Every structure is written in C-alpha cells, then in structure tokens.
Fold this sequence. Notes:
alpha+beta; 2 domains; seven-stranded mixed beta sheet; 14 strands; 30% helix
Amino acid sequence: MPDQPVAIECGTPGVDELPGLSEVLAGWQRTGDPVQLHSGDVGWFWRFGARRTADALRVWRYDGQVRAIGLLDEPEYLRLAIDPDFRADAVLAEALAADSARVVTPGEAFVDAPEGAAVRGILLALDGWGLDDAWQPLIRDLAAPVEDSGLTVEVVTAETAAERTAVQRAAFDGSTFTDERWHEMAAGTPYRDGRCLLGRDGAGHAVAAVTVWSAGAGRPGILEPMGVHREFRGVGYGQAITLAAAAALRELGASEAVVHTPSFNTGAVATYQSAGFSLQPEIRAARRLPQ
C-alpha cells in the first residue's frame, strides 16, 4: 500500500483539554534547550480565566499527537512551543509557518518560535517578514543552594492576595492584575507547580513580588512576572525577591531558573545578573512588517 499522507491539524482546545496541554508543555521543557513557551506562561495568562485561556491557545496534532502549542499573548503575537524531537521536522515546520501566519491578525504580527526550530527559517524567508526587537534571556543554575535574600519573604495565600496584586499594579503602569484575576490564576492547572512570593521591608510594607512556575523536577522553571513597588525602588529589593524566586524554584525541583526581558531594559537585566543569572544569546521573534 502507498504511504498515507501525514495529517497535521491545527485547532483551538476546549477548557477540558487545558490540564493535559499544560502537562505536555511542562514535559517539553529541557535543561539547556532554547527558551520557548513554558507551562508557566500559560499559567500566568490563566489570570484571564480558563475559557479565555483555551481560546488563546492553538494546538497542532501530527498524526493525532500534540507536537506544537501556541499561545496568542495578543491577537497579533503568537508564542510557540514545539516538541523538542520535532523542531527540525520539515513537514511540521511548513504547517506551523502556514498556520501561524493565518492565526495572527492581518498586518503587522509576530511569531515567537524557539531558536533553531525549522519554522523560524521558513517564516523569515517569506516576503515581508523579518526579525523583531531583541529580548534577553537569563538563566541561573540551581544545582547549588541559593544564597539568602536578606528580605522577609512569604508565600502568598488567598488571604494576602490583595497585597500581591497591589504590588503588581504599583510595579507596572497599566497593570490589570486584580484580586479576582489572582484567584483565577491560582485555580489554573499550572499553578499546582507555581508559587507567588511577597517581599516585605522591616516595617512590614509589601515592597516586591514575584510568581514562579516550575515544570516539574529536573526541568527549567521561570519567573513570570517580577516587580518592585514604585515607592520602594533603588534599595535592592529587586535583587532580593529574585534570589527568593530562585530559591523557591529550587525547592520545587527546578533544574534552573529562567527569565527574559526586553534587551533595552538594562535595569532589569542588571537586577537579574546581580541575583546570579547569566546572560544567554538574545532572541528575536519573527515579525511580519506592516503593509
């Protein structure tokens, strides 16, 4: 019999599929691999609720098996994770490139795929596509214990969620992270391997916060997001809460702590470096230029 054609299907999952997809994403995180969409990224998006999270995801099944997952952070911005064993697969890459260009909104759009994945080369070879601005990944190995942060740090609970969200809003202009959204996030599957930390100064003020996401023992974990209250900046709380985040990820079994920030944000880069994170090669999403 002649070979049957390979079937690759792209679809939007149902809410009931989210737990399984989160586990798949976690399983694709490997120490030393290029940075790609993490289960914690989906966990952070979950603050908008399970229904909206499902609607923002795209799943590629290759002969019935999930081989790629995309998250529309924004309608024009798609972040991809690809099964590490299939990143070089030409058939999957062609399908990802064609589908990704349609999934995002018309006009200017972005597709962020892991470095070295075949789909990147296909997209960048298309007319009207180029590279976006650089992002800076940083990694801290967690084989050895993390030094003490010197900051009073506590794990956020439902009772202290309001302080966590208040720090977020005071750290990021325009943040919409409300108490309700914290509870939505905390109810999501990825948060089973996540933790919010709140840092306090000597007077008890909530001065910094971070959310960490493990993908399971022996896999990279991420910080997403980390922020310092605008009224308490410039005294080392960013470094301290980042150290606490790394220690928390180590407790959760992560092999390394990963974070990335726009390369132009030199202050954030310096903060992460001061907490023992090492610079990695810059990454750039594929960008479709405005028509």
